[in-house]
Design goal:
The protein is an alpha/beta fold and about 550 residues long. It has 17 helices and 22 strands. The protein has four domains: about 350 residues, Glycosidases (TIM Barrel), CATH 3.20.20; about 70 residues, Alpha-Beta Complex (Oligo-1,6-glucosidase, domain 2), CATH 3.90.400; about 35 residues, no CATH class; about 70 residues, Immunoglobulin-like (Sandwich). Helix 12 packs parallel to helix 16. The structure holds 1-O-alpha-D-glucopyranosyl-D-fructose and calcium ion (CA).
Length: about 550
């Protein structure tokens, strides 16, 4: 096993709009992040993934970039970005940026030129096609509802957009596009950033000539038609050979449609492509035929099976990333746990899983204080384009009843994780002195960092403690993983290092459980419940109890 800094790091994702506002316009910004650098250092994370901060009309909150070389004025200036980077590095924290190059904004100069006429130098920067029988070129649907093709009245042709119609897909077949992207990479790497999180990177190579898809459900559509296209590895490898290999950096590709059988093609070191992927198989759990607002039941053991399968498939030759939430899915404590009676226990149990499983852990902002999902009263209060588009498609134009749709939004809508960070219980939770761009979760009077910091037993204290326990602990980071049990929502595994080995016991349900210890001598090193009785043969576990033991014999 090769050792690398990015395998030993604890990653933390910042969603810039919602982290901290410094100038009372209600929008989180770079100065806001700078004001919280000591907080990040105190928490102990050492690698930040910063969501997109580039110029953008914000149709998809920055995932629609109109200028890769400029900071969006609402976030600040390039000088402030440089200050942020220096401030992080001074604290020993690295920074990776979001790279969104499957598509641009329709307000990017390239698209404006491309759409100006049928015949111009930029026309084939994007995919323009004639319609078929008075409709779009094929039956592909977008991730955010409706056809993936938009008719341009002026030229009479359609352009491809796998996301919103304001996110036209770039044509990577065109070598000029690839060169332009490589220039973007160089620009940011020369500034000294430590790598990229590459948005929907397996989608960059399209299956031409755009034949109709025949898929039973949305996940299959993504895997078989949109993702893993014929030239995807050529394109990623080209970025690696021409740019990435010349820097000491880390890359993690967001991987919709990548499965355990295709993952190593992206991340095995001999491929010279990416270091890690954010696999989304567990995040897509519950997606029905029509995606996330068509919710289907699933069990917690499905999550465990996916994590275990990925570990088995990847960890000998590559390296996994472990995350349980991000800016696109529900709050982890609400999605996988019980955020009412057992919020503390669940948040700390999942922290234990994140930080002791094999792979680089990624913590999403707010998880370290146990922030939960939110329920806004009406659809008008929602901001997320995915939620709003599907509301239109399923409820307004379709036959889904509103209550069913809202139930899915409360469960899985992206605004659950985008409400502002809850710093304290003052007005606007200490996030802003103005009006927040998205309503706060009203529970900020109870759930906030200051409240956590006032107690030694808090979710924040637990994270901090476990992060520092993991730091530099090579046996825990690199040790083998052996699963002893996953049945009955009792998840038990060992991490076997060269010197020390650990036993992790997670009782993942709101009920007691019993477990017969396989070792005669163990020492408790981490626990989320008070008063653990001295090691005894049969453990009596409380609801959502999480224990980490060092194995002595
Ligand atoms: O997400 C890609 C992706 O797979 C998501 O669209 C996911 O299917 C959906 O959010 C589930 O609700 C990335 C970014 O993380 C996301 O924020 C962007 O909207 C999207 O790409 C387009 O850039
Ligand atoms: Ca601001």
């Amino acid at each position: 096993m090769n050792k690398n800094w990015w395998k030993e790091s604890v990653m933390y994702q910042i969603y810039p709009r919602s982290f901290k506002d410094s100038n009372a316009d209600g929008i989180g910004d770079i100065q806001g992040i700078i004001s919280k650098l000591d907080y990040l250092q105190d928490l102990g994370v050492d690698l930040i993934w910063l969501g997109p901060i580039y110029d953008s009309p914000n149709d998809d909150n920055g995932y629609d970039i109109s200028d890769y070389y400029n900071i969006h004025p609402e976030f600040g200036t390039m000088a402030e970005f440089d200050e942020l980077l220096a401030g992080l590095h001074a604290r020993g924290i690295k920074l990776i940026m979001d790279l969104v190059v499957n598509h641009t904004s329709d307000e990017h100069e390239w698209f404006e030129k491309s759409s100006a006429s049928i015949d111009n130098d930029y026309r084939d920067y994007y995919f323009w096609r004639d319609g078929v029988n008075g409709g779009p070129p094929n039956n592909w649907t977008s991730f955010f509802g409706g056809s993936a093709w938009q008719l341009d009245e002026k030229s009479g042709q359609y352009y491809l957009h796998l996301f919103t119609k304001k996110q036209p897909d770039l044509n990577w077949e065109n070598p000029k596009v690839r060169q332009d992207i490589k220039n973007v990479l160089k620009f940011w790497l020369d500034k000294g950033i430590d790598g990229f999180r590459m948005d929907v990177i397996p989608l960059i190579s399209k299956r031409l000539p755009f034949q109709d898809a025949e898929a039973r459900n949305f996940s299959e559509l993504v895997e078989k038609y949109y993702s893993n296209g014929p030239k995807v590895h050529q394109y990623i490898n080209e970025m690696y050979e021409d740019v990435l290999q010349h820097y000491d950096i880390m890359t993690v590709g967001e991987g919709p449609g990548i499965s355990t059988s295709t993952a190593l093609n992206y991340i095995s070191p001999d491929r010279r492509e990416l270091n890690m992927i954010f696999q989304l198989e567990h995040m897509f759990l519950g997606f029905g035929e029509k995606g996330k607002f068509d919710q289907q039941p699933y069990e917690l053991v499905d999550l465990l099976n996916i994590l275990i399968n990925w570990d088995e498939a990847i960890s000998e030759k590559g390296w996994n990333n472990i995350f349980l939430d991000n800016h696109d899915f529900a709050r982890l404590v609400s999605r996988w746990g019980n955020d009412r009676e057992y919020r503390y226990e669940c948040a700390t149990l999942f922290a234990t899983l994140l930080l002791t499983f094999r792979g680089t852990p990624c913590i999403y902002q707010g998880s370290e204080i146990g922030m939960t999902n939110v329920k806004f009263d009406s659809i008008e209060e929602y901001n997320d384009v995915e939620t709003l588009n599907f509301y239109q498609e399923f409820v307004v134009d379709g036959d889904m009843d509103e209550a069913t749709f809202m139930k899915a939004v409360y469960k899985e809508g992206r605004d659950n994780v985008r409400t502002p960070f809850q710093w304290n219980d003052s007005d606007s939770a200490g996030f802003t002195d103005g009006k927040p761009w998205l309503k706060l979760n009203p529970n900020y009077d109870q759930i906030n960092l200051e409240a956590d910091q006032a107690h030694s037993k808090s979710i924040f204290a637990f994270y901090k403690n476990l992060i520092s326990f993991r730091k530099g602990n090579e046996d825990l980071i690199y040790g083998d993983l052996k699963v002893l049990q996953k049945e009955d929502n009792l998840f038990i595994y060992e991490r076997r290092g060269e010197q020390d080995s650990y036993l992790v016991i997670l009782n993942m349900k709101s009920a007691n459980a019993k477990y017969k210890l396989p070792h005669s001598k163990i020492e408790l090193v981490q626990s989320n419940c008070d008063g653990f009785p001295n090691p005894i043969e049969v453990l009596h576990l409380r609801p959502w109890e999480a224990l980490v033991f060092k194995i002595i014999e």
